[in-house]
Write a structure and sequence with these properties.
two-stranded antiparallel ribbon; 24% helix; 170 residues; six-stranded mixed beta sheet; Pseudouridine synthase
Amino acid sequence: MAEARVRGTPRDGRRTVVDLVPAAGARLYPVGRLDADSTGLILVTNDGDLAQRLTHPSFEVPRTYKAMVRPSPVPEHALRTLREGVDLDDGRTLPAKVRQLRPGVLELTIREGRNHQVKRMCEAVGHRVRTLERVRFGALRLDDLPKGAHRRLKAAEVEGLRKAGAGRHD
């Protein structure tokens, strides 16, 4: 027997980002995902084509995260490995931009969106992620938007996302 689900309601009963944004009858597409224990910027759009272009790995739209890791600090050789690409069970990652903001707090920019990627990359170099927050997606920055809040994008921001999604495509 096939399982029936209400759109936007996960199997374990947790609410999704789509449940939090007023849709006014429009079909909404989350752009990417955040783990249940991660926080930060997530985009929701009614443009499925744009959502696909922003999330498909071939377009390499950058996402920036702030990760608090242990043990601390992260040594230079581990940062270098992250910058060069890390071998994971599903293949080698693209090189990441990485800097240590302060001991044990990393800012990582990746251009892929693999499942649990930042956590797996950090773990591969010996550092467990304690907290993870997406602070940037393409040119959009989280800035001071309160946790759980949402806002409409400005026309210039949408245009910037369209340009980001029109980037590289192999």
